[in-house]
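hiii, so i know i said id send this last week but things got crazy w the move. better late than never?? heres the sequnce for the chain we talked about at the cafe, plus the structure i predicted for it. fair warning i was half asleep when i ran it
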Amino acid sequence: MVFRRGQRVEVFRKSDDESWENYMDAFIGVHGIITDPDSTINDPDALVEVSLEGKGTHRFPQDCLREL
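okay and structure toks below
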């Protein structure tokens, strides 16, 4: 999946990527908007910046996000 700026997404699961931090578990189920997509598809090292509703802006691995 290619993420685009302004696209609505959900953090739907814990990532298998090593960049996943324990504090990110609290964001599972939270919706947000892509603010800085990465052009590399299915690259776990390519983090996507997401502005989460009421939680600030964070960078997530692509495998934990899904389109709404």
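btw The first strand starts at residue 8 and ends at 11. thought thatd interest u
miss u guys!!
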